[in-house]
């Protein structure tokens, strides 16, 4: 190849817009007997787009595709978060928690991309805070109470309102009642707009992971601190008026979940809900329209769940390195795509997220 042709091709490659990933995942790697951590972006086909090495374990990785940026949030108790370029994974700014606080693993970008909202806990009492960062500088812009203790996942209930799962767990080895809640807060002031607290029959449940339905209701996956004594509901639908509905589960499936939901997600059409249980090694799907149970699929140590490329599509990930696309068929239930099952020499961590422009 002549030098002119080489330079022309190189210029074309540099001018070509980098591929925007379809999903973002946190990962652990024990290659060579040494544990390392990273965040990884993959395409719809499962091809790795980029890998950002980390000196700490991440929990969730989220995107603001309109502004081509993403955030990597440290796993609880996280001491660091990172803002990166979405197309390349290049690190842009490091974020640090409020004094005396740690990151709790989740965050959301504001609608205009100017701010990043994070959940943080303070001290042994796990006092909850929502801490807001200026994306351009990485500085803390504002903070307010999460109206509970040990806040975990948060999302936009509408353009001005945050929904937050306050996990309420101080001691994971205790079966004492916990003070968990699902709250709706004014994103500008932190004012409490709504709250769901479960009754005493369900006071061992920790409301942690959430997803939003098109009608504004929130799907909430829980973890039962005392699952050995009974089958308590594990996935709820709730709204800010305090109405709560538990999603139905066949008893045999319910027992297999072992009181633990790791992630909840809604497909791109908003018609289906998926919840995963790493303890039970399976994912469960319901109709978002009427809440009826549809089907389950086995995948050992599965926790990550996110919408896929189209209606009825989800992607699942597991700590054993599996990535499994599934499709929900109205008649057949869950249809796995085994030809697309990818087994990587990596340990996919708790969550994966869908990138949509």
From TrEMBL:
Record Pfam families: DUF1513
Protein known as: DUF1513 domain-containing protein
